[in-house]
C-alpha cells in the first residue's frame, strides 16, 4: 500500500515507485499530484505526510525499451504463482519450472517453452509432452509484451484495481 504510480507527463504509466522516491520527485519539483485528491484511497499517509498514490512528471521522458530478464521469478510472476497444469496457486518455494517440450528432448529455455508448475504436476508429467501425459496447459506461455502490465502483477488486487484506470 505504500507504493505510488508514476506517470509520464503525457499520462502513460512509467513505473510503480516507493513513496520515498515519489516524495523526492515532488519536493524537487519534478513531479506533482496527478489527480484531485477526493477519497481516502487517493493518498497514503506516512509520518503525518500525505503522499498521492498517483503522480505525474512535469516533463516527458523517453521510455527506454527494457527487456524483461528471463528468470525463475519472472516466470512465476507472469503465471501469477499458479501451476499451469492444475491451476492452483502456490508459494515460491513450492513451485518449480516445467519445460513444456521436455528438456531431455532438447526443449529450449525460452519464455514460450517454460511454465510455472507445482512439484506434483512436474513429477507426474516427467519427461513427456503435455499431450503424452494427458495434461492441459491453462494457457499458452509467451514472452510478456507490456512491461508495465507485467510490473502490475506484483501488486495486490486492490492496488492493481486502483491503478488500472491509468494503464489503459
Ligand atoms: Zn500442479
Key terms for this structure?
168 residues, binds zinc ion, DNA Binding (I), subunit A, alpha+beta
Poorly predicted runs are none
Bound molecules: zinc ion
Count of distinct structural domains? 2
Radius of gyration: 20 Å
User: Strand tally, please?
Assistant: 8
| Main β-sheet, spatial strand arrangement | 2-1-6-3
Which structural class matches the secondary elements? alpha+beta
Give the DSSP E fraction (strand runs of 2 or more residues).
15-25%
Annotation field: number of helices: 6
Explain what you see:
The chain is an alpha+beta fold and 168 residues long. The protein has two domains: 3-65 and 155-164, no CATH class; 72-133, DNA Binding (I), subunit A, CATH 1.10.30. It contains six helices and eight strands, in the order ββαββββαββαααα. The strands form three sheets. It has a four-stranded mixed sheet. A hairpin with a 2-residue loop joins strand 4 and strand 5. The two termini are 21 Å apart. The model has no long low-confidence stretch (mean pLDDT 91). The structure holds zinc ion. Zinc ion (ZN) binds at residues 83, 85-86, 88, 118, 120-121.
Amino acid at each position: 500500500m505504500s507504493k505510488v504510480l508514476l506517470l509520464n507527463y503525457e499520462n502513460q504509466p512509467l513505473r510503480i515507485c516507493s513513496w520515498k522516491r515519489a516524495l523526492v520527485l515532488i519536493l524537487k519539483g519534478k513531479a506533482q499530484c496527478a489527480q484531485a485528491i477526493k477519497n481516502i484511497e487517493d493518498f497514503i499517509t506516512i509520518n503525518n505526510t500525505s503522499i498521492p498514490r498517483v503522480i505525474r512528471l512535469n516533463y516527458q521522458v523517453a521510455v527506454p525499451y527494457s527487456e524483461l530478464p528471463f528468470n525463475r521469478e519472472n516466470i512465476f510472476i507472469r503465471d501469477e504463482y499458479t501451476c499451469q497444469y492444475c491451476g492452483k496457486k502456490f508459494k515460491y518455494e513450492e513451485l518449480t519450472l516445467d519445460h513444456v517440450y521436455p528438456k531431455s528432448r532438447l526443449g529450449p529455455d525460452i519464455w514460450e517453452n517454460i511454465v510455472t508448475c507445482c512439484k506434483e504436476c512436474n513429477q507426474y508429467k516427467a519427461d513427456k509432452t503435455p499431450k503424452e501425459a494427458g495434461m492441459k496447459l491453462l494457457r499458452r506461455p509467451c514472452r510478456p509484451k507490456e512491461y508495465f502490465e507485467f510490473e502490475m502483477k506484483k501488486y495486490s488486487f486492490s492496488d492493481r484495481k486502483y491503478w488500472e484506470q491509468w494503464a489503459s
